[in-house]
Amino acid sequence: MNPRRMLILLTIVLIIGAGGFAAWLFSLPETARSEAPGPIAMQEREATLNALRPAKRERPVIAIVGLNDATETTDYLMPYGVLKRADVADVFLVSTEGGPVQLYPALSVESELSIAEFDQRFQQGADYVIVPAMEPNDAPKVLEWLQAQSKGGAMVIGVCAGATVVANAGMLDGRRATSHWFYLPDMLERHPAIQSVADRRYVIDGNLATTTGISASMPMSLTLVEAIAGREKAIEVARSVGLEHWDAAHRSADFGLTRSFATTVMGNIFAFWKKESLPLPLQPDMDEIVLALQADAWSRTYRSKIYTVSTDESPVATRNGVRIRPDRVISGLPAESPLPGVQGQAAMPSLDANLEAISARYGRATANVVAMQLEYRWR
After folding, report:
1. What is the rounded distance in angstroms from the CA atom of residue 109 to the CA atom of residue 102?
2. 346 and 240 in contact (C-beta within 8 Å)?
3. Does position 340 have pLDDT exceeding 60, yes or no?
4. What is the mean pLDDT of the chain?
5. Alpha carbon distance 59, 331 (integer Å)
6. Please, are residues 180 and 132 in contact by the beta-carbon 8 Å criterion?
7. In degrees, to the nearest 5, what angle opens at C-alpha 210 toward C-alphas 207 and 214?
8. Inter-CA distances, 280 with 111, 171, 287, 314, 350, Å
9. What does the pLDDT look like over 86-143, one tens digit per residue?
10. Share of the chain above pLDDT 70, in %
11. Is the pLDDT at 79 greater than 90, yes or no?
12. CA dist., res. 250 & res. 180, Å (int)
């Protein structure tokens, strides 16, 4: 979810007036539920894997497509990091025009291929196209390319609010689907023929897949690894990122706009004197998933903004070759930082470490706001 969208929503509600705002606020549930999700039946799990198995190439080609102006940070980088370390497919960061891709809420990266360059290199099209959240979510060049890739036999996977992009391409009408809790109601209102599926982190229908919020791109990517290369490979990669389970189990009722969420966001927005910008030093061979999760989480507090720093303007390559462009060039990297030292940690434990650090610095309510935006079950 783009924090700007949440800011706009809450500002509009506040403008309605103090009385209207109070009535709206108290109409919200105080907190979300916290029951554990139920298990996924083996038959459903096998059907998911069968639907995801590659149909075109023995070693699939996977394109993760981004809009140069604004693409969600973790949606773009997490699937790339998971699939590259699995080494079961040829994976490319693709963008509409090539060159730098500005991610939100933080980081700027260099794509590997433009859409045109990808089409020229892979004239049979991709085996899989992963679609992150992006703004606008109806860019004609993206929609037309997704339609062409789907007609060419690609499995199209909309992660998080990337599902709204797939919907705007007219590809989800009459299909079972899901999306990030914040964007799902609007997507269903605009596309009433979509069959919404609750309590699943990812939903497969034919050659289309969709997921819930930002953190769901991890289990979706591991499920894709399992479909391509088998259970043992998926277990190996899952251990490397610190995740034990990656099935579709989910509790939709755990995520939504609550009174605690709204009051915390509004309090943080209006406490302008408490806002701070925090440097995130770029180091060669950083884990791109760890980097993405840290930058994403700290940029969703409504108290802090992350900017990357390096000692020169050259892009810094991550472990799997993502080229990160520094926001600022400084003479020496900061000796201390409020950000937790998470290098050497697996990806998902690093997210927990960041949420704990956010809780210690800004309070647990703010850490819960971040987890809610990531649609991450954190207790």
Report:
1. 7
2. yes
3. yes
4. 91
5. 44
6. no
7. 145
8. 21, 39, 13, 16, 15
9. 999 999 999 999 899 999 999 999 999 999 999 999 999 999 999 999 999 999 999 9
10. 90
11. yes
12. 12
DSSP-H helix ranges across the chain: 3-15, 18-27, 42-52, 73-86, 115-121, 140-151, 162-168, 184-190, 217-229, 231-241, 259-270, 288-298, 347-362, 364-374
Confidence class for position 368, pLDDT limits 50, 70, 90: very high
What CA–CA distance (Å, rounded) separates 315 from 377? 33
Cα–Cα distance between 300 and 215 in angstroms, integer? 14
Position 63 scores a pLDDT of 98
Q: Calculate mean pLDDT across residues 187-209.
A: 97
Q: Which of 144, 171, 168, 141 is nearest to 156 (CA)?
A: 171
**How many other CB atoms are there within 10 angstroms of residue 355's CB atom?**
22
Task: Give me the phi and psi of 185, to 5 degrees please.
Answer: -60, -45
* Residues 218 and 347 sit within 8 Å (Cβ to Cβ): yes
pLDDT per position as a tens digit, 1-26 = 676 666 555 555 554 455 555 555 55
What is the CB neighbour count within 10 angstroms for residue 74?
A: 30
Run of H or E including 94: strand 90-95
The gap from C-alpha 253 to its chain's centroid, in whole angstroms, comes to 20
Tokens matching residue 298: 């700290």
Distance CA 202, CA 200 (A): 5
User: What type of residue sits at position 241?
Assistant: V
Structural tokens at position 36: 């554990």
Could you tell me how many residues make up the chain? Answer: 379
Which residues pair with residue 196 across a beta bridge? 177
